[in-house]
Amino acid sequence: MTAMSPMLVILALLSMASNATQACPFFFGDFEEEGLSLRRWSSVCKKEINDSGFIVCASASANGLSCPQVGFPRQDAEFGRDAQGVALAQRKVGAGFAGFDFSKLSASGAVLPIDASEWTCIRDNVTGLLWESKTPSGLSREQDKYAWRNSDGSINGGNPGGNNLASCELLAPNCNTEVWIERINQNTLCGRSDWRLPGPEELFGILALQFDSRGILDPDFFKIAHSVYWTSDTSRDSAARAYMVSTLGGGISFDLKENTAFVIAVAGPRERGRSASRFVINSGGNVVDLWTGLEWLRCEEGLVGDGCVSGAPLLLNWSEALRRAESVSHQGQNDWRLPSVKELVSLYSFRTDSEFAGGALIPTNPEFYWSSTPAPIDSSASRGRARLFSLGDGRAITDDKSVLRRVCLLYTSPSPRDDRPNL
User: Fold this and answer.
1) Model pTM greater than 0.85?
2) Cα–Cα distance, 130 to 10 (Å, whole number)
3) Residue 337 pairs with which residues in a beta bridge?
4) Is 18 exposed, middle or buried (0-12, 13-18, 19+ CB in 10 A)?
């Protein structure tokens, strides 16, 4: 496939901006005469991704170490919002661990002081999404569980889900997510009536993955039960299952819709442009995601050719994968790295009504890929583990660092990967 002309990219971006729910600044950076140089854009109406919540590095047998670590280069904690430290803290609208930026809101949606002792919602100042604050009783009761249900055939995959008679306090015998969301919207929580279950990438996005349980969702803002939470999407594995996110160590999995899990509501538009049309090939032959601004090496390591069909996948352990990224040079670019697990998640389309986001431009296999993100630091069982993501079924897991897995690489821009301004 040939590179898209600068003019076509500008038109595509203008189209994205016209459909956006918020105005966003444009700075087209430096366009080369013979192609594109997208990685230099400061802001092109890109979707903001929360960083991983990691400020420490890991070795083969230990997590929670200082950065950098010899033999384990370019880890998650060395890039992005999390790595900006004091400079980022001074720019935050609200507060939060590492790169996170949250504000507390009142029942009417007004912003409260950071040290407020009572609040109804939390605004994520990175993504602009609003999150429900759980309570000891009532509709937002943190201990209530629900069966997954959605009557929309474009979302449920042909299986609307189930119901539970008595797993919740206020809505029994209709303890299902559809009834619960309807009631939340009727109550116009924080002045909003667009509440919904979060997508897997959205709920996973607010987890501070450095922690196992306490701290994985900032306890200064979120009052939750540490367990598994339903998301909005039917599993690509089976229409009888739906995706869930764990706040016990941070993972993405799926379960039968008739089973019960905890819930948390989110308000705000879900991502736009989750299709192959959001990707272009630049003059260097790399794939640029217009939605996130990330630049990917088109073929996974070991594969070559226009369709990435020649060669054999290179299977590496975690240390080898990190060092491989440091050694790769492509089209004069040698600043490659393993993506964070959240960056890998950004490639995947969890919705059953849309194609894999990368499409033909980023050929992948339905297997697990290494990320640069270690497992939690506060669990002795996780010391020798790191995080992986499946581009086949959307699961995020941890595994032993010695296991051989596939590798895809991301370009490290001249400035930190998330240098876009806050909302």
Assistant:
1) yes
2) 30
3) 410
4) exposed
Q: Are 163 and 172 in contact (CB under 8 A)?
A: no
Task: Supply 110's token pair.
Answer: 């007004």
Token digits for 85? 């430290």
pLDDT > 70 fraction of the chain, expressed in percent and rounded:
81
Contact 307, 363 (CB under 8 A): yes
The DSSP 8-state label assigned to residue 47 in this structure reads P
Alpha-carbon gap, residue 205 to 199, rounded angstroms: 10
At residue 404, what are phi and psi to the nearest 5 degrees?
Answer: -90, 125
Q: Which residues are CB-neighbours of 415 under 8 A, at least 6 positions away?
A: none
Tell me which of 418 and 343 has the higher pLDDT: 343
- 16 vs 316, which has greater pLDDT? 316
- Which of the four pLDDT bands, split at 50, 70 and 90, describes residue 12? very low
pLDDT of 149 higher than 60? yes
Give pLDDT, residue 341: 97
CA angle centred on 33, ends 9 and 281, rounded to 5°: 40
**Cα 264 from chain centroid?**
16
Residues sharing a CB contact under 8 Å with residue 19, sequence separation 6 or more, in sequence order: 272
User: Of 392, 150, 341, whose CA–CA distance to 263 is shortest?
Assistant: 150
Please tell me the distance from the alpha carbon of residue 130 to that of residue 111, in angstroms, as a whole number.
Answer: 12
